[in-house]
Design brief:
It is globular, with a radius of gyration of 17 Å. The protein has one domain: Rossmann fold. It contains seven helices and seven strands, in the order βαβααβββαβααβα. Helices cover about 40% and strands about 20% of the residues.
Length: about 210
C-alpha cells in the first residue's frame, strides 16, 4: 500500500519532535513507521573549516539538500529502501553514519522548513504546523543547545538574533498557511493529538481495506 506521509513544521523548539514521537508510537500499533528529520539533509560541508561551518545560515532553505530528501520520499513511496544521511550538530556537518530505512506504512517528516519547499509539500498527505510562543521556544532552544549540542549561552543568543529569528519570520511563520492543522503548544495539546491519531488510524484502516 502507498505510505501515508505526514509533514510537521514549526519554529525551532516548538514541540515538533514531541508530536512526531507521539504519532510514531501510536501509528506503530497499526503498521510500520519511519521518522525523518529534515535536519539530517543539511548539505555536506566537508570543504569548509569548522569556523566557516559555524557561520552558515542553517535556518535558510539553501542549507538543505531538498532534492535528495524529495527523491528519498519518492523512493519510499515506490516501495524502495533508502540510505538516509545523519547530521552531527557538534561538527556542523553530516556524520559518517548512514541509516537504512525500509518501505513503511507511515512516514513522518519533521523540521522547521518542512513546508517551505513546494516539492515536499506535494508529497504530504497530512500537514501539521506546531505553533508555540517565541519566548517559550527560545528558552527551550537555549536549554537544548547548551546541554545537547555543547553551545555557549552567547553563541545560542547570537545565532538566534542573527539567523534563527529573522529566518523564522521570513520562511517558517509564513509556511503556516499550508497546514491542514495548526497545533498550539505542541505535543501537550491532547485534543489536537487525539484528532490527529484518529485521522491517521482511519487512513491506515482504509488503505488496508
Amino acid at each position: 500500500m502507498k505510505p501515508v506521509i505526514i509533514g510537521i513544521a514549526g519554529g525551532t523548539a516548538s514541540g515538533k519532535t514531541t508530536i512526531a514521537k507521539k504519532l510514531y508510537h501510536a501509528a506503530l500499533k497499526h503498521g510500520t513507521v519511519a521518522m525523518i528529520r529534515i535536519d539530517d539533509y543539511y548539505c555536506e560541508q566537508n570543504d569548509l573549516s569548522m569556523e566557516e561551518r559555524r557561520k552558515v545560515n542553517y535556518d535558510h532553505p539553501n542549507a538543505y539538500d531538498v532534492t535528495l530528501l524529495t527523491n528519498h520520499l519518492i523512493q519510499l513511496q515506490a516501495g524502495k529502501s533508502i540510505q538516509k544521511p545523519t547530521y552531527d550538530f557538534k561538527e556542523y556537518n553530516r556524520s559518517q553514519e548512514i541509516e537504512e530505512i525500509q518501505p513503511v506504512n507511515v512516514i513522518i517528516v519533521e523540521g522547521i522548513l518542512t513546508f517551505s519547499f513546494p516539492e515536499l509539500r506535494s508529497l504530504f498527505d497530512i500537514k501539521i504546523f506546531v505553533d508555540t510562543p517565541d519566548d517559550v521556544r527560545f528558552i527551550r532552544r537555549l536549554k537544548r543547545d547548551m546541554t545537547e549540542r555543547e553551545r555557549s549561552v552567547d553563541s545560542v543568543i547570537s545565532q538566534y538574533l542573527t539567523t534563527v529569528r529573522p529566518m523564522h519570520l521570513l520562511f517558517v511563520e509564513p509556511s503556516k498557511v499550508y497546514a491542514d492543522l495548526i497545533v498550539p503548544e505542541g505535543g501537550e495539546n491532547t485534543v489536537a493529538m487525539d484528532v490527529l491519531l484518529t485521522k491517521i488510524v482511519d487512513i491506515l484502516k482504509k488503505s488496508k481495506a
